[in-house]
Amino acid sequence: MKLVFVYNADSGPVSGLFDIGHKLFSPETYQCGLCSLTHDTFSEKEAWKEFREKTDIEMEFLHRDEFEKKYEASYDYPVVLRSNGQLDILLSKKDIDAIEDVSELIEKITSLVT
């Protein structure tokens, strides 16, 4: 089993710069709750990085354009999917948007996959 994390942003340097600007100047309207939970403006949050590096859970992280090209599927983003021969929603956009902080995200993921 693998978890596939799909951010509500496209890949590439222009999109990355746009996202940084959006987080800096209008964070309350930023469209990717998953990115807000796992990253600060310029880097990955330390608690998330530590969890990601120490867990035995296989994880894949994709921007929505990368995901749609690789998996030929589309969802309401952001989304966390469980891949076990097929893709199933583990955390929907609504679920992710209800999560308050990175600690809660880690707890939810851990409880859902164990």
Order of helices and strands: EHHHEHEEHH
Helix/strand-derived category reads: alpha+beta
Rounded to the nearest angstrom, the distance between the terminal CA atoms is 11 Å
Based on CA inertia axes, which overall geometry fits? globular
Strand order of the largest sheet: 2-1-3-4
Point out poorly predicted stretches. 16-26
Protein name: GTPase
List keywords for this structure.
114 residues, alpha+beta, four-stranded mixed sheet, GTPase
Question: What do these coordinates show?
Answer:
This protein has 114 residues and is α+β, with helices and mostly antiparallel strands. It has one domain. It contains 6 helices and 4 strands, in the order E-H-H-H-E-H-E-E-H-H. About 10% of the residues have low confidence.
